[in-house]
Q: What sequence folds into this?
């Protein structure tokens, strides 16, 4: 018995499947494609003016690599990857208008593979930032950069996974990496990854060489914290509790019961012996959700709270243990 093609004869547009998807009419299908294209075009127009190519030279002015970056302030402060500039002695930045300008390193943070350059140029368009914690798997994203020396290149994909932990070229483990299927090649590193509202949600990073169909990005919430620290102090100040944790989504019932703004917390996977947390009574498996009545929804939150405190104050920390809330007092250590 012959089977009926659910797409209709030769997959034509009269198919009930295509009609149900809203694509049975050529005009409707065209409208959907136009809407998709318009979203991408609008994102490109919003982000592209803030994107720049970074050329790195070593001893004797010899080329030592290249990458991308984007402006976070109109007065010339540009975010890129730390590995892009790591071996460099000189740095030239080519802007969206094609003009080239010298730049200097403000600071770098190998732990997150991020660095800040200051570009000696007229006022620039600054990128608008989104919220990487609000990203969802399947969401459309647009990557910008200068792969293989090809300036002003754009690629489109979707968020494939969230919460990855991957090693940066420096050897440090970068947490909560965004994985997408955008095409990233050498030279894309340091460029922005944006959503279709024209907001940067990540910083592209070539963390795995020769990876095909895989793109990785440092979340913009992490990058914004690092950027602020480098501008203020030339480096990232780090205070620690002596724990390792991972992002843990929680049911809405628990979120509401704990009166949390976001449905996540930190699951503690390791407690350093004789560290501040160990001395206070923390244990592996505790669900850490509050520090001085501020929600700790991720390790990024924890780092921000500790950095803002300057490491001087004693904290009240709250965890869930066996379904019960426990409270501890502790003072952070300093790197």
A:
């Amino acid at each position: 018995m012959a089977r009926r093609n659910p797409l209709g004869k030769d997959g034509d547009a009269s198919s009930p499947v295509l009609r149900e998807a809203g694509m049975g009419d050529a005009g409707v299908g065209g409208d959907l494609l136009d809407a998709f294209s318009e979203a991408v075009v609008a994102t490109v127009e919003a982000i592209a003016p803030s994107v720049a190519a970074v050329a790195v030279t070593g001893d004797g002015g010899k080329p030592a690599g290249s990458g991308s970056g984007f402006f976070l302030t109109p007065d010339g402060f540009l975010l890129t990857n730390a590995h892009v500039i790591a071996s460099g002695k000189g740095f030239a930045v080519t802007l969206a208008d094609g003009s080239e300008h010298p730049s200097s390193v403000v600071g770098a943070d190998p732990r997150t593979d991020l660095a800040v350059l200051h570009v000696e140029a007229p006022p620039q368009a600054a990128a608008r930032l989104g919220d990487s914690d609000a990203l969802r798997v399947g969401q459309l994203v647009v990557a910008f950069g200068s792969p293989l020396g090809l300036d002003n290149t754009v690629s489109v994909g979707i968020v494939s996974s969230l919460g990855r932990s991957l090693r940066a070229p420096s050897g440090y483990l970068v947490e909560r990496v965004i994985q997408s299927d955008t095409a990233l090649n050498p030279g894309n590193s340091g460029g922005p990854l944006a959503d279709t509202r024209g907001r940067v949600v990540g910083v592209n990073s070539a963390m795995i060489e020769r990876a095909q169909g895989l793109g990785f990005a440092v979340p913009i919430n992490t990058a914004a914290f690092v950027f602020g620290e480098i501008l203020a102090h030339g480096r990232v100040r780090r205070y620690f509790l002596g724990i390792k944790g991972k992002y843990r989504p929680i049911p809405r019932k628990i979120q509401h019961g704990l009166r949390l703004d976001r449905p996540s917390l930190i699951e503690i996977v390791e407690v350093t012996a004789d560290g501040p947390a160990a001395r206070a009574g923390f244990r592996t498996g505790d669900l850490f959700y509050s520090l001085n009545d501020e929600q700790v929804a991720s390790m990024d939150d924890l780092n921000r709270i500790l950095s803002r405190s300057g490491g001087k104050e004693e904290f009240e920390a709250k965890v869930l243990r066996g379904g019960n809330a426990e409270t501890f007092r502790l003072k952070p250590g300093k790197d």
In short: The domain at 239-334 is CATH 2.30.42.10 (Pdz3 Domain). Residues 26-47 form the longest helix (22 residues).
